[in-house]
Automatic annotation (TrEMBL):
<dbReference type="Pfam" id="PF00551">
    <property type="entry name" value="Formyl_trans_N"/>
</dbReference>
<dbReference type="InterPro" id="IPR001555">
    <property type="entry name" value="GART_AS"/>
</dbReference>
<feature type="binding site">
    <location>
        <position position="64"/>
    </location>
    <ligand>
        <name>(6R)-10-formyltetrahydrofolate</name>
    </ligand>
</feature>
<dbReference type="InterPro" id="IPR004607">
    <property type="entry name" value="GART"/>
</dbReference>
<dbReference type="GO" id="GO:0004644">
    <property type="term" value="F:phosphoribosylglycinamide formyltransferase activity"/>
</dbReference>
<protein>
    <recommendedName>
        <fullName>Phosphoribosylglycinamide formyltransferase</fullName>
        <ecNumber>2.1.2.2</ecNumber>
    </recommendedName>
</protein>
<feature type="active site" description="Proton donor">
    <location>
        <position position="108"/>
    </location>
</feature>
<dbReference type="InterPro" id="IPR036477">
    <property type="entry name" value="Formyl_transf_N_sf"/>
</dbReference>
<feature type="domain" description="Formyl transferase N-terminal">
    <location>
        <begin position="1"/>
        <end position="181"/>
    </location>
</feature>
<dbReference type="GO" id="GO:0005829">
    <property type="term" value="C:cytosol"/>
</dbReference>
<keyword id="KW-0808">Transferase</keyword>
<comment type="pathway">
    <text>Purine metabolism; IMP biosynthesis via de novo pathway; N(2)-formyl-N(1)-(5-phospho-D-ribosyl)glycinamide from N(1)-(5-phospho-D-ribosyl)glycinamide (10-formyl THF route): step 1/1.</text>
</comment>
<feature type="binding site">
    <location>
        <begin position="11"/>
        <end position="13"/>
    </location>
    <ligand>
        <name>N(1)-(5-phospho-beta-D-ribosyl)glycinamide</name>
    </ligand>
</feature>
<dbReference type="GO" id="GO:0006189">
    <property type="term" value="P:'de novo' IMP biosynthetic process"/>
</dbReference>
<dbReference type="InterPro" id="IPR002376">
    <property type="entry name" value="Formyl_transf_N"/>
</dbReference>
<feature type="site" description="Raises pKa of active site His">
    <location>
        <position position="144"/>
    </location>
</feature>
<comment type="similarity">
    <text>Belongs to the GART family.</text>
</comment>
């Protein structure tokens, strides 16, 4: 499948997806990296990887509809079939939802529906839960709602600091996201 990865930050998941494509573990082609934060580290990773980068500044558009219309045109030009969100810190709006329907996927660092939204790892640690994890799901208009595709649990040990839990979660994500995308693209769920 031809995919676009959307990211706003460091892009370690972008990197894991790219590496899995290179090694043949993920049967897909990254056509485009879309970033709403020009200069974010993920753009450097993408350029090094030889992936086409589309950076944009949302505030320079009159509305979400306008920038999503621009994004949709670029996605079409590049024949993108799936949108893969990897730390894209923005809700997807009606233009992309209408055009990509069930072909937009997100990864979230908790066992949804627990701890949606920002700082899911911090929320889990503050709540004192003993198990948290990672969820991969289809995107709908809500914040981290939408049908769940797959989940992995991560245990929180007594005394674990937030950064230690975040680290464990990232390690799982880097295996779990490419693997789940491959299954999905091959028609298995
Ligand atoms: C990941 O933890 C992902 O679950 C969340 O945002 C984070 C992105 O990290 N949606 P990175 O930019 O891929 O390192």
């Amino acid at each position: 499948k031809k995919i676009a990865v959307f990211a706003s930050g460091s892009g370690s998941n972008f990197q894991a997806i790219h590496d899995a494509v290179q090694s043949g573990k993920l049967r897909a082609e990254i056509k485009l990296l879309v970033c709403d934060k020009p200069g974010a580290f993920v753009t450097e990773r993408a350029r090094k990887a030889g992936v086409l980068v589309l950076e944009f500044i949302p505030k320079q558009f009159a509305s979400k509809e306008e920038f999503e219309t621009m994004l949709h045109e670029e996605l079409q030009k590049n024949e993108v079939e799936y949108i893969v969100l990897a730390g894209y810190m923005r809700l997807i709006g009606s233009v992309l939802l209408e055009n990509y329907g069930k072909r937009i996927i997100n990864i979230h660092p908790s066992l949804l529906p627990a701890f949606p939204g920002m700082d899911a790892v911090g929320q889990a640690v503050a709540a004192g839960v003993k198990v948290t994890g990672v969820t991969i799901h289809f995107v709908d208009e809500g914040m981290d709602t939408g049908p769940i595709i797959a989940q992995r649990a991560v245990e929180i040990q007594e005394g674990d600091r937030e950064d230690e839990v975040a680290q464990k979660i990232h390690e799982i994500e880097h295996e779990f996201y490419p693997e789940t995308l491959d299954r999905l693209f091959e028609g298995k769920r």
